[in-house]
Amino acid sequence: MLDFNKSADKLTVTLGGRIDSVNAPAIEAELVSLRDANKEGDLVFDAEKLEYISSAGLRVILRMRKTNPELKIINVSDEVYDIFEMTGFSEIIPVERAFKKMSVDGCVVIGRGAKGTVYRFNEDTAVKVYKNPDSLPDINRERELARRAFVLGVPTAISYAIVKVGESYGSVFELLKAKSFSELIAEDNSTLEKYAGLFTDLLKTIHGTTVKKDEMPDIKILIGKWLADCAQFLSDEENAKLRTMVDAVPDTDNMLHCDYHTNNVMLQNGETILIDMDTLSHGHPIFELANIHIAYVGFGEVDHAMVENFIGLPFELTEKFWNCFFRKYVGETDAAKLAAIEDKVKLLSYVRLLRHYSRRKDIENPEAVTAKCISLVKNQLAKVDSLTF
Known about the structure:
Layout: E1 3-6, E2 10-19, H1 24-37, E3 42-53, H2 55-67, E4 72-76, H3 78-86, E5 95-97, E6 100-101, E7 108-112, E8 116-120, E9 125-130, H4 136-151, E10 159-165, E11 168-174, E12 179-180, H5 181-187, H6 192-207, H7 219-230, H8 236-248, E13 255-256, E14 265-268, E15 271-274, E16 281-282, H9 285-302, H10 304-311, H11 315-330, H12 335-358, H13 366-383
Helix pairs in contact: 1-2, 6-11, 7-8, 7-12, 9-10, 9-11, 9-12, 12-13
């Protein structure tokens, strides 16, 4: 009797032991009967317990695929995978290897992002655990983006393994005795200026790298979602002004990280390296600066604890870091000109802030917080007539 698990979009059938010429007909009959009784959703074969499969077993799977073209096989051991690969079977049907299991219980969090959390597994290793249990496409995409960035000269840690962490997947990196900039600044606040400089230098390397636009997402697509979600809180005139300014920002081919903060920048043996590459995009640097501003200042204008919990530093220190970094990045010494550029960045930062809080209902006094964010956007919008600099 085959074990199976049915969800709204998937029927997962567990294959075990040996499938050969002796039992293949009976297994096929049971698979057909099981599928006939559970016709909705994709069909997945979980081969974690499968020890061997003969050509007769492979033919059973091929016949099942004829009526289930979306069929895939997961959790395949190295021994069974070799059979699939040697016969060319893995070129016909998606076959996923079984992944080593890893626990992050008790591990220190060194970074959080929209899609996952980065843990320090031990002194030499970090693992990024994805929130989505069906995240393998995201992991493979991030590995490819990281590879492209590395080839283009951006110093980044490359994932060398994919693991299973509970019901989710993780990507493992080698970070030999590396520490994040947040950790280093927390250890010695007097180093803030030093690490702000290194932080700036790496970001300029990233932004100075041009990419093929079809290889990385266009950041303006994401910005368009910000504007659409915030439109309900602004007047038609304000929405039109904001949209016109965003549209006027040049569509450049600069590489952007889009999750750039001191938890994702590490010092390893004196070298600055970048981690967490799933948000790589292309576009104008002002959009990156807005994302950095919200991480160090924007969230703190609503709740200091948001910044402190995320970055791991007191708000007064993150604000100081932003000011130091921004001055170095822009390269402007005139206070009035620097403030004018920062106003442009703040506008986009506050738009994202409004979008974030307007979508959250799990905070205290959500109406009051949303009202404050609306006020920040409107006041900043009145100051700014262009986003270019």
